[in-house]
UniProtKB/TrEMBL annotation:
This is DUF1501 domain-containing protein. Pfam families: DUF1501. SUPFAM superfamilies: Alkaline phosphatase-like. InterPro entries: Alkaline_phosphatase_core_sf, DUF1501, TAT_signal.
């Protein structure tokens, strides 16, 4: 997409219609094509930089307690996974998932020359671009762009749904982007005369106006499809009332209703714990634990858990040493979770976290995050990852 069109949409009032972040497709209005591989990927972004060391805890390492005299989780409270690592006491359901062979914990995930800025580090994770040059294309946006040409399948505009309530760079492509739903609101196109007239729009001499009509047409089309799906079936599972719980509930509703969507993107904020970390992180991890528990139970009941994969990540971990405000500052490598039924393998990557060989006070990365992306692209979405990532990564053989 050229810069003029990007700026035009950014300034246009249509970006707020129905609380949508609108898909940027260039094809004209047409019935939706529903090709897919009957698998789905749910991504949960923990924004702010979750403290991995108090999430996946090296409880048997004296350095952990030396660096965190007031923040370290006491050994007797840790949910022990092996002789070296355990989980935060709020993550009891995560322990159950690991015991059932339905979770991988990947420790020390990051990238070379880590950036400690929230915005830059998240951009790196979103674009899978570790160079100094910024990019306006997300790794999943590239997947949406490349999908049709490489598979000879017609893409549908809700192939990726963004439930985060904002514009997620990971889902931005040059030609296609994720279809956004904010707080469960959809354009009620059936009774909207203006949107119905889009179907009869003739090509306009002004390319930007014509482009806007095309965007509206695709929004209308996907909105109608999703609304119809949501009328057919609803989950009866109880979910937490917090923001993440609501996003997970809507995701489950769409999945169980048979919505043919491959990618769902969710986000929860608040992990920037520079001060008063212990109660804040406990609250957030409890929300994560309870939300995931409801979500997994829901999909198990519907027989859809085995065809679902969930990735939970944060833009970076925190410093090993606590600060003077009962918190931790921005760090580097952290832990990532991959969940799903019938995984190829489960367990813990890097079963001990290295606290001796730090880089500027941070845990160093051992697993490039792009290797995790490659695993999901190659072995779950069944799409050649080197097309998206620009290089080949060794398979982890876990999803």
């Amino acid at each position: 997409m050229n810069n003029d069109r990007r700026e035009f949409l950014k300034k246009s009032a249509i970006t707020t219609v129905g609380a949508f972040f609108l898909p940027q497709f260039l094809q004209a209005y047409s019935p939706l094509n529903l090709d897919g591989n009957n698998r789905r990927l749910v991504i949960i972004q923990l924004s702010g930089g979750n403290d991995s060391l108090n999430t996946v805890i090296p409880y048997n390492n004296s350095l952990y307690y030396e660096h965190r005299p007031t923040l370290a989780i006491a050994e007797q409270k840790v949910l022990k996974l092996n002789k070296q690592l355990g989980l935060h006491y709020s993550l009891s359901f995560f322990q159950d998932l690991l015991d059932k062979g339905e979770m991988n914990i990947i420790n020390q995930v990051g990238y070379p020359n880590p950036n400690r800025s929230h915005f830059r580090s998240m951009d790196i994770w979103h674009t899978a671009n570790i160079s100094s040059a910024s990019s306006s294309e997300g790794w999943l946006g590239k997947y949406l762009d490349e999908f049709q040409g490489n598979t000879n399948k017609n893409i549908y505009s809700h192939q990726a749904i963004d439930l985060s309530g904002g514009s997620i760079l990971a889902l931005q492509g040059q030609k296609r982007s994720g279809f956004g739903i904010n707080s469960g609101k959809l354009i009620r196109g059936t009774n909207d005369h203006f949107l119905q007239q889009i179907q009869h729009h003739q090509e306009h001499t002004n390319s930007q106006v014509d482009y806007l009509y095309q965007v509206l047409a695709n929004t209308y089309s996907s909105s109608e499809y999703i609304l119809e799906k949501m009328k057919t079936k609803h989950s009866h599972q109880e979910y937490p009332s917090d923001n993440l719980g609501k996003q997970l509930k809507q995701t489950a509703d769409l999945i169980t209703a048979g919505c043919n969507t491959e990618i769902y993107y969710l986000k929860v904020s608040g992990f920037d714990t520079h001060n008063s970390q212990l109660p804040r992180q406990e609250r957030l991890l409890k929300q994560l634990n309870h939300g995931i528990q409801s979500f997994v139970k829901d999909l198990r009941r519907s027989g859809l858990w085995n065809s679902t994969r969930v990735m939970i990540f944060s833009e970076f971990g925190r410093r090993v040493k606590e600060n003077g405000s009962k918190g931790t500052d921005h760090g580097a490598a952290g832990s990532l979770f991959l969940l799903g039924g019938k995984l190829k393998s489960s367990g813990i990557y890097n079963a001990s976290i290295d606290l001796e060989n730090l880089e500027k006070g941070d845990v160093q990365y051992k697993i490039d995050f792009r290797r995790v992306y490659a695993e999901l692209l190659d072995n779950w979405l069944e799409f050649p990852s080197n097309t998206i990532l620009g290089e080949t990564f060794k398979s982890m053989n876990i999803v």
